[in-house]
Amino acid sequence: MTMKTNEHAQYTHLTVELVPTAEDAAMLQKTWDAHKRACNRFSQKFYNESLKGKNKYKTWKTAYASASWLAKGKKGGLHAVYGHSIVDIIKKAYKRNEQKGKLELILFGDYGEKNTKSSAIHFCWESAFQVDFTTKKCRLDLADGRRTIAFSIPSKLPEPPTSWKIIRAYLKLVYGSWYLTLTFPNPTAEMKAEQDTNVVGVDRGELNIATTFSPAKGAHSYKSIDYPRPCKGSTNDNYHKSLFARDVHVASEVVENEPPYTIFILEDLYFEKPIEGWSYRHFEDVLIYLAALRHQGVFYCAPYNTSITCPVCGHVEKANRLHDENRFICQNCGYGADEIVDDDENAARNIYNRGKEALEKELSNKVGA
Ligand SMILES: [Zn+2]
């Protein structure tokens, strides 16, 4: 995993939902199953090699040759181009394994399935996918050949400008629905802070989907209860869709509440598993996308201890945050003891401070150069 701390968001993503015919769906499923099977077989090979101590699949060429064969193979049924996707997925998965300091066999399953990783199919080559926003159709290189499938853009999300170029696509199956996440280079990635740039810290959470902080406007919470909530009894598919719709709602309001050329600061978070009902990553994707359309940028700061750091004296302690009361009280200087300081607002302020500091450093480097 690469940390993005003190970096501008380089890419922006838009997830569209496929509207497959029954025949399309059958082919998507066949491709998905074949890809999953090939991932699991290559994972076993990669794991066995790692056990030996010297893993020949760490060389790209060897890995690609093997994965392509597994994809194509006798039973593989996929185009060799899928080897790229498989190697991408396995390398990333085992890198995280390494960072945790223990080697475990990684198995791939479907979204929400226990003890497995769910992974999107990576379309890395332009020849493997084409997306047309005029006709709302995409052409994907699937198991039995190329297929043109209709898609829809989630409501409230504008279409990307025609000048934006899609560089990758990721196919996902989530509770029976097919999604295609499109990746574009972020046009505001090069936007640097100036002296008078409006900088806004954004904390993400469960109770408050987002809490923003800037010196000009202070703190503002986008409370989960203020948005249409997923009904408890609904299917996983509907529940998941309503969470995504809520992310779009909140992210739209966050960007619309700030002028163009604002820089939003987000924590550089990484989660091993999707957290149920807590779609951090999707909110981030939508925020970056909507911000980019408004000439606003996103900058990442280090995520450590933002919720337990005292913005007054800098003291870091777990006990500073009173989870049950959603309150912050510094155990060292007593900040928050007399007047109530909301814990999420405090985190947003810390995120702002960290981002602002890093941006100022960037600015002084630029001035010095
Ligand atoms: Zn303090």
Automatic annotation (TrEMBL):
Keyword line: DNA-binding
UniProt-recorded Gene Ontology molecular function terms: DNA binding
InterPro entries recorded: Cas12f1-like_TNB (IPR010095)
Pfam families in the cross-refs: Cas12f1-like_TNB
Cas12f1-like TNB domain: residues covered: 280-351
Identification of the protein by name: Cas12f1-like TNB domain-containing protein
Biological source species: Megasphaera stantonii
